[in-house]
Protein: FAD-dependent oxidoreductase
Amino acid sequence: MVVGAGPAGMAAAATALDGGLRVVLVDSGAAPGGQFWRHPPLPAREALPTADLHHGLNTYRALCATLSAHERTGRL
Structure:
């Protein structure tokens, strides 16, 4: 179980999942992301250059893709 689905929690969950473990990711927010949600809402966010957003936005997108892939397998 990983408590907190902010950047660190997402990374911890992805690492555990990539290692073959099953993970329960728990957070008080409606969706994972933590501090990454402090940006303009979509679609406005997609129109901005990445440099105008959080310095780790590409990492966040990669973590979302990793977690989504594992969710489809039933391990998350």
